[in-house]
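TL;DR need structure tokens for one chain.
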Amino acid sequence: MKSLLLFLLFFGFYSFVSGQEIVELKGEVDFPWINRFSAYGLPEDQAEKELAGYEHAYKKAQRKNRLTDELRLYALLKENNQLYAPYVSIRNDQEKPLVIYMDSASYKKTGVWNYNEEDLTRKQQFLFFEAKGYPIGENAYLLTEFIQIREVTDPFRSKALSKFAMDVYRK
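>> reply
TL;DR here they are.
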């Protein structure tokens, strides 16, 4: 009886994991103005305050049936235990924003915090991110394999800088 239960449990878990379609994630790294995708790197008291605010807003919006995309993402991250996970935000070929969550070791491999958006813009460059992952929700993915991040020069890019540009990636 135990072996049958173990077999069914293992088969169910394997079916769930193998049912997740791994996709290629490629695109230009997006440097968002505000870190609204994760509490990673924030001081503990500030992270708790931010997450409590999201939780309050989520419950209020849920009662009124008015969930925004941002609050849906919050619920998705909470469900997948990714509220404190590091991430990289990219824009793919269709200019669709994607947020890729990963563990700290994978995040360190990316080295994304070593780059400054203003410096890249001044040099008419951008970062191109390549990885593999599986979807956990609309436009949100969990990283399974980091491939590379590289600087790409585009001579047709504007050298203009936004005075509001801010790097939110943290080491």
